[in-house]
Design goal:
Length: 488
Amino acid sequence: MTSARSIRPWRPLAGVGTAVATLATLLLGLGAASPAAVAAPAVLEAEAATVSQGVVESNHTGFTGTGFVNYDNVSGSYVQWNVNAAAAGSTKLTLRYANGTTVDRPMDISVNGTVVAAAKSFAGTGAWTTWASTTVTAALKAGANTVRATATTANGGPNVDSLAADGATTPPPTGTTPAAVNGQLKVCGTKLCNQYGKPIQLRGMSTHGTQWYANCVNGSSLDALAKDWKADVLRVSTYVQEDGYQTNPRKFTDLASSIIDQATARGMYVIVDWHMLDPGDPYYNLARAKTFFTEIAQKHGNKTNLLYEIANEPSEVAWSRIKSYAEEIIPVIRAKDAEAPILVGTRAWSSFGVSDDANESEVVASPVKASNIMYTFHFYAYSHREEYLNTLSRAADKLPVFVTEFGTQNYAGEGSNDFTMSQKYLDLMASKKISWVNWNYSDDERTGAVFKTGTCNAGGPYTGTSSLKPAGVWIRDRIRTADDFPTS
């Protein structure tokens, strides 16, 4: 976002723990000691569920999938799964968990809102790396069901790894989500290409700053983004200053990591956005950036759905300094993740210098000395008119470009929407297969936030259009149009 958008939102953000809200439901299928199932049950990972007041972690070994849910130490925290039963009837629900304490951490297990096992025991397992299973039998209806495991004491719940449901159908088949179809992306010429070497265009949304609006990034909202909005990509914006990363590096690294896991479970690509903004010199945060990207790439470098955006909006510095910074950070990422595309910010708030009366020629004349990289461009259609549009068009003919942020309003994400100018940009980007991400997937008061104020604290609804501002209705409609992902 531009400098004007560096102002902290007017409304305080709810607790960061809510960001992981989706995971909580997962816990549902608890019960007695787990007997061997006659038929192979569907296994639903906790990190892909809806979590309320908990976080996705992977710091204790022995889990399945990509992680587990660590409940906040509070009564009422929960994990909730969506379970699709092949037929109505009695179903065995088995929860895999670890409790490294000696204190029981009971939970209520409910199905479709009705408690089927009150204060179900989750006794100590001896260590957080020792996993056990407990089972409860409950009646499920044919089709969609919700299973929720809710902590009933101030200690919260145990760590929950997965829910297995006999007679349930398995999750959606692989190969149908954007990340499954396209696989590992790479830059080919001036285009972003999929695993088949075919140019593609990704379309999606950016979070707001997770220090303020983590409560808008939860299981339900990510389900909506992936399935209702049909988004290909989520940009996870970790602000460095402005009450962000520098105040608590561990907290914000873990939060970004959790959101990466949740978006991955839903088949979306993820842009890891190092949201440096003020000061605009990327070197100011060089040491922090090296630490952050080392940790993220170390943990997620084996994934095929990541892109790294190493400097959101450099400003008041020359292109040569941005280039030098990029040539220091890129090897840090490459040491842990050799294949993911890396996105490099450009001068004057990622405008290719247009906002400083320059243009793309300085990057064309002196590109970053690295392979598999793209350059970022940001625009806000009400403020940024034909000069910016023409710069994007020229740059995309000579350089690989990714529009990692844009809005239909003014450069502060405020004021009236200019959908006509915005459509000109979208038409250009479609014609040249320039991938794009819209700002922003939150309920901030500004017109650029897609949800009406209060939506996230109310827990949605995130699907459909009833909770959307005009900008949200407009961008959702354009994300939902069919993708062209060639495979041959």
